[in-house]
């Protein structure tokens, strides 16, 4: 095969440290644009992104040229600096992140889910949402070490 091709869809979820409500509506669009730019610089296409006050969801492709952990390290460190420069002096993302693979046939479903975060969180907390994802993807976890 003369070339390498791939199309891997990923759903990232990560929260503000201690799930503090630091992402305000007035900086949401700028944060989205900034993160989309970071992904784009690394060859990743962002299909959906939505930040609520205490966490963020991102649906994007994984480029062939960078690992998941390296990409997420770049996104989290750069966006954290961006938010601090935007006036949120004490902003810090949680240490970890979650990433789930998404089948091409489920991209629209996940996109719709992400873009409806505000409505979704009128009925469900981040913690409950997160536990649901872990169960759906059969991820074993210890509740004691999940929250920071």
Shape: globular
Number of strands: 4
Question: Strands across the major sheet, in which order?
Answer: 2-3-1-4
Examine the secondary-structure arrangement and name the CATH architecture: 2-Layer Sandwich
Q: Any idea how many domains?
A: 1
The CATH H-level superfamily is Transposase IS200-like
Q: Over all CA atoms, what is the radius of gyration?
A: 15 Å
Q: How would you explain this protein's 3D organization?
A:
This protein has 148 residues and is α+β, with helices and mostly antiparallel strands. The protein has a single domain (9-106, 114-146), classed as Alpha-Beta Plaits. The protein is built from six helices and four strands; from the N terminus they run βαββαβαααα. The protein has helices spanning 25-41, 68-85, 107-115, 117-120, 126-136, 143-146, and strands at 9-15, 46-52, 55-61, 98-102. Strands 2-3-1-4 form a four-stranded antiparallel β-sheet, sandwiched between helices. The mean pLDDT is 92.
